[in-house]
Structures are given as C-alpha cells and as structure tokens.
C-alpha cells in the first residue's frame, strides 16, 4: 500500500527537459520502505542533467509529505546507465521514440 502511494507520488514529478514524469521515464530503479524511512534508488537521463538537484529536492519533499514517511533518502546511481529502453510505452509514444 505504501509503495503504491510512493509510486503515485513519484509519477507527479515531471522531468522539465522531457516533460514526462520520472516513473514513466524509467528513472526510478528501486524503492524500499523501512518503518518511516524511504530509500529511492534512481538515476538521471544524463550526468549533466541541469535539473538533477531540483528533481531530487522535489522527490524528497513530496515523499516526506506523505503520512507515515518522515525521511526520504535518494541513492543516485549511474549504473546501470539510463537509456530510452527504460521508458514506459506511454513515455516512448509521447516522445515519438
């Protein structure tokens, strides 16, 4: 139930470059909840993503605003590297790829 709520919340966060939410872009690799702490393992489309800090801040605020979560930690990884193959069918259709 909590993972579903977290996923729904993450799907409201839009990547400003691509105008698609971070879930459909395939940027979220893993979500773990332990008591009141959420750990999100994710990546960015590129290492030089100019909106990286902003996206991470939005994620932390949105998740920590959920009832039952007091802390959200982000584990930003570069392996496996993000590719367009990680996007959902909806995201690919929206971007025409």
From TrEMBL:
InterPro entries to which the protein is assigned, alphabetical: Fe-S_Maturation_MIP18, FSCA_dom_sf, MIP18-like
Boundaries of every MIP18 family-like domain copy: 4-75
Cross-referenced Pfam families: FeS_assembly_P
PANTHER family for the chain: FE-S PROTEIN MATURATION AUXILIARY FACTOR YITW
Name of the protein described by the UniProt record: Metal-sulfur cluster assembly factor
UniProt organism field: Companilactobacillus baiquanensis
Lineage: Bacteria, Bacillati, Bacillota, Bacilli, Lactobacillales
